[in-house]
Design a protein that fits this description.
mainly alpha, 3 helices, about 0% strand, elongated
Amino acid sequence: MDDRIKDLYRVPNICEYENIHLETLCEECAMLEERVHTIAHALSEQECGVIEEYIRTRNDLEVETVKMALRWGKQHYK
């Protein structure tokens, strides 16, 4: 899992804001991503590159989505 995403789960008092389902999903994603990396190394270099690029792009999307949600929440829930 991308360090930027891991950092999102390292905020003070996060237990007050998340539920156990979020924690479980995070753990499951990390395990699945590890398996995807293992499978990708058995593919051609080009196919492996596509998978790696997808993971990087998905990580960027996740980070930007959370940042947008935080800005929206800050603006609408003062």
